[in-house]
């Protein structure tokens, strides 16, 4: 009772300090504190009673503000009345309180805030999705941020825009494994930051070879003002950063909920927020107008060189390497010369992305650019726009399948064959045989794949659990020679071995991939580290080789894969497997696999068929 009297007295004193305040009651304050927009301004979860996502006590005016929207509302009213300059620190709060007639308008100049707003002069907001980048743990699932476009003539060029980004504040030189651990369990503070948009273009399209999709949002002027005023409140404010849920994409959804009251974008993502899924949610909410595609510089170069003859491609390398000065003696017509010069210029610039700039390279680059810009009607080929990412399959998957395995000798269960039913659940994200619409070619990223199996006499058991299964198949060619690689970590039941043991294993491989037969062929030496309690030597290390051919498409995909592993005294394991996937609809597919195994404990062949539903 005494606490309630103290709270009421605080409100009364705040009201007396500002004669324009409207009379209110404790009951009405409780109702206002429960309103979604006030909770959104404080970053409280929509579908739970937990504390605010903001972990920085400096953001709150009340001592218990992180856990009590009512306490923060009461203290905000009192503080704004007692110290009017605080309104300049919280312009979004002030605007909402004035709209609700809980606070009278005040003539606050807020010079620093106005200068910041005038500098940005934002006329439009664009949601940007950078495609996944498997070589960086922080960008494997892609990345989203907001582009703030200025009004007037400055708005005609994206290079004059600003990028509003939320990300983990990672110390320089942080180890990738340490980053992965801390990113999963909240070991980093997350902050909003702003930088020129051209730096993001350089980082993503030029340095990391990532496509960018730009979704222009249909925000009205007052919604943009509301968004930016809240961004001002979040300057230097820390959030705990979590890789899967409280990440870049989730924080942006919260900003959009503040900008347009009544939106509920975050509720579906309180446990996991994949960037492409959050973009899909924004599109479905009717927030998107125009959509633009910005291909990577590598893709632009590949498109340009693909249109050249084999002889021209040789000259491209010679021009870029400095072995040839010009194309005067080649017999090429004017358009072919311009195309060759342009390809050589872009190839040289691409190679110089991370190399120190020298006067010799600068002079060569300028010579090639002049050759590409000789008068004429040549125009570079345009990169074909791929399917939009948000139109691809969703990132979680449920599967139901049946299978049959026949043995040349007696089966582990004492039969000549095994029949089984599999139940699969995958947290994320995409494997090589899933429909390719909206996903990068050659990339496979699976985390949290759980498979349960029922078979006669054994009942239901864990068949496998893939904690991580990542594969990057980047084709090698005339101009680039990337390394293809794969890492797999998890549990696997050896269902054709005696006693069908469940083993822990780590697989790592690296090698090359080449375009073959309208697909890609790969060859990767490998190592398998396995723990098997049923063996005399629990831990075993086996060198091996992974070889295969992969065809990927939006409707049909197939892979022929061979694997050889040498466990020394424990024998060799050989597997040949053919798998095919048919996309029934955007989120449904049918998968068939046939395999033959030659193992130290016997030979077997099997077939499996499964229905897979993405959600």
Task: Based on the model shown, name its key terms.
seven-stranded antiparallel sheet; about 625 residues; 4 domains; disordered N terminus; alpha+beta; single chain; flat
What does this molecule look like?
The chain is α+β, with helices and mostly antiparallel strands and 615 residues long. The protein folds into 4 domains: 2-108; 117-294, no CATH class; 308-372, no CATH class; 392-614, monomeric porin ompg (Porin, Beta Barrel). 28% of the residues lie in helices and 33% in strands. The chain is built from 15 helices and 19 strands. The strands form 2 sheets. Strands 8-9-10-11-12-13-14-15-16-17-18-19 form a 12-stranded antiparallel barrel. A 7-stranded antiparallel sheet has the order 6-4-3-2-1-5-7. A hairpin with a 7-residue loop joins β14 and β15. Residues 1-23 have low confidence and may be disordered.
Largest beta sheet: what is the strand line-up?
A: 8-9-10-11-12-13-14-15-16-17-18-19
Q: Say how many strands there are.
A: 19
Q: How many separate helices?
A: 15
Tell me, what is the CATH class of the largest domain? Mainly Beta
Question: What proportion strand?
Answer: 25-35%
Please state the overall shape, judged from the principal axes of the Cα atoms: flat
User: What class do helices, strands and sheet pairing give?
Assistant: alpha+beta
- Average pLDDT works out at 90
Q: What kind of assembly state do the chains in view correspond to? A: single chain
The low-confidence parts are: 1-23
CATH superfamily of the largest domain: monomeric porin ompg
- Gap between N and C termini, in Å? 50 Å
The largest pleated sheet is described as: 12 strands, antiparallel, barrel
| Number of self-contained structural domains | 4
| CATH fold name of the largest domain | Porin
User: What is the CATH architecture term of the largest domain?
Assistant: Beta Barrel
Round the Cα radius of gyration to an integer and report it: 30 Å
Helix content: 25-40%
